[in-house]
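Now for a specimen:

…
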Amino acid sequence: MSRTIAPPVPRGGVAEIVAVALDEDLGGRGDLTSLATIPESATGRFEIVSRAAGVLCGIQAADEVASQVSADLQIDWRAADGDRVAAGRTVGVIKGPARAILTAERCILNFMGRLSGVATLTRAYVDAVEGTGARVAHTRKTTPGLRALELQAVRAGGGASHRFGLDDAILIKDNHVALCGGSVGEAVRRARAFAGHMMRVAVEVDRLDQLEEALEAGAESVLLDNFSLDALSAAVKQAKGRATLEASGGVTLQTIRQIAETGVDVVSVGALTHSAVNFDLGLDAV
């Protein structure tokens, strides 16, 4: 399978995230251990090695860490974001001032471990629905401050984009409906009047009768929240292609294939970002 291209995050955003991470690690006095034990003139060459099989991500963040620690650090990448890597593979070689390499080590591995973990889990979900036509999408259940990078990792794993934040799409949830008198149709009509013709309106429903109400009111996307498999199949037949249907709620690797086979267009999975296990990478002197 070919590598999935993960679009870069605007550098200013990555630079800010990395600066916070380095400040957290170095505090006001820097890497005291390296300052105490490593001569200033010493240079080093280290390999970044995957300890497990999975999907790589985090190169942009790692490059930014190296750049902020020292202009003399150089990383020669042997793999790219979105690549499947085997255990024991050298994915990059970092060289330059030894102190700077050791100072950057933990931040580089933290970013790459977190983002490769998200990409690897996403790829497992994407592989599970292969051939169904359904897309696997993220949610907003991300680590505060790291959303841009975590969603980059979802893309690296083959996942689809959902809304990034509250300001780039209208998605009416159950609490919005409750504050519109409990009427899905009324909430959609208000949103349609606000949005104009250039913006899609999506709404979450938890019953089939609400689906018809949403469609008649003009919703272009409908999120089917915690529907059973039978209800999802019924919703697909009822909608007849009038809106994009998204299944959501409690999706696991064990259930996603059956959900996708009901004919829904999208399956959104919060676990991609809130439950990904850190991917094990190491830095080895060579």
In short: The radius of gyration is 23 Å. The longest strand covers residues 43-50.
